Amino acid sequence: MIIGTGIDLVDIARFERSIARTPRLLERLFTPAEQRLRPRSLAARYAAKEALIKALGGSDGVYWSEIEIASEPSGRPRFALTGSTAAVVEERGITDVHLTLTHDAGLAAAFVVAERSTATELQERA
Predict the structure, then answer these.
(1) What is the distance, to the nearest Å, from the Cα of residue 41 to the centroid of all Cα atoms in its chain?
(2) Does the annotation list 16 as a binding residue?
(3) What is the pTM of this model?
(4) Is the N end or the C end of the chain the one with fewer CB atoms within 10 Å?
(5) Looking at domain 2-125, does it have CATH number 3.40.50.2300?
(6) Domain map (residue ranges) of the chain
């Protein structure tokens, strides 16, 4: 069952200007592993974090530094959540979070689907 969806779009050039004006944003928004990435990849990860917050229905208990976008060996992006952010996802009964990223023509976008497995749903009803 889908619990929530989120989408976000980022203008890469505008994002780069923001980072240049306020370098501390890198530390506030991204994990150390993410900070080493190119601006277009950072913009896509920023969009992913925004899309996740939308899919969760708000930012209560969610912290940017506890959301990392990692890659599976295949290159597929995935969320690595820690701390209270991971707890919020669990409390809301979310068992899977699906993510897709793209960047082209100066824009970066992310789409997130938060899902509760059918098995979890059946257990709650019992």
Answers:
(1) 13
(2) no
(3) 0.90
(4) C
(5) no
(6) 2-125
